[in-house]
Amino acid sequence: MLKNVPKILSPQLLKVLCEMGHSDRIVIADGNFPSESVGKDAIVIRMDGHGIPEILDAVLKLFPLDTYVEKPVNLMEVMPGDHVETPIWDQYADIVEKNEGSRGQIGHIERFRFYEEAREAYAVIATGEQALYANIMLQKGVVQ
């Protein structure tokens, strides 16, 4: 047992977060995201029983965001013509602000470009999140 580690973080996920280096990316994917095919060259961690906000909050307690890029946190943009509300993005902004002190680190990536960039990710966390367009990508920084 360890102290002060959020219980939702499995030993496998802790190991992956520790292994990742500066500029490596991790995707926390919603239940509709093709985690296994996009992450075929990455480490895929199954967390199907959990939603993204609780995982994001736990990860950001340990994971430094990259300060050398303008937007180390990126969301998948809603496709033109999709009339989808994304209130979960407000939750993400609150979580990022709570853990990092600012909401300004969050950017948006067009859907198909998001998939392309996710294919280069070190790891993908496959969740049971049901919100649409809930995928989020984090880029790791350094501990200072």
Descriptive report:
- This protein has 144 residues and is α/β, with parallel strands linked by helices.
- It has a single domain, classed as RbsD-like fold (3-Layer(aba) Sandwich).
- It contains 5 helices and 6 strands.
- The protein starts with 10 loop residues before the first helix and ends in a 5-residue tail after the last strand.
CATH classification, class level: Alpha Beta
**Shape, per Cα inertia axes:** globular
What separation lies between the terminal Cα atoms? 26 Å
Largest sheet: 6 strands, mixed
Total strand segments: 6
Helix content: 25-40%
- Helix count equals 5
Query: For this structure, what is the CATH homologous superfamily?
Result: RbsD-like domain
Structure classification: alpha/beta
Element-level helix/strand string: HEHEHEHEHEE
**CATH architecture name:** 3-Layer(aba) Sandwich
Q: Remind me, CATH topology?
A: RbsD-like fold
Strand percentage lies at: 15-25%
Q: What is the alpha-carbon Rg in Å?
A: 14 Å
How many structural domains in the coordinates? 1
**How are the strands of the largest sheet arranged?**
2-5-1-6-3-4
Low-confidence stretches: none
Short description:
It catalyses: beta-D-ribopyranose = beta-D-ribofuranose; alpha-L-fucose = beta-L-fucose. The chain is α/β, with parallel strands linked by helices.
Labels describing this entry:
144 residues, alpha/beta, RbsD-like fold, L-fucose mutarotase activity, fucose binding, D-ribose pyranase activity, RbsD-like_sf, RbsD/FucU_mutarotase
Write the layout of secondary structure elements.
Blueprint lengths: L10 H9 L5 E5 L5 H4 L4 E5 L4 H9 L12 E4 L11 H13 L5 E4 L1 H8 L4 E5 L8 E4 L5
Parallel strand pairs: 1-5, 2-5, 3-4
Antiparallel strand pairs: 1-6, 3-6
Helix pairs in contact: 3-4
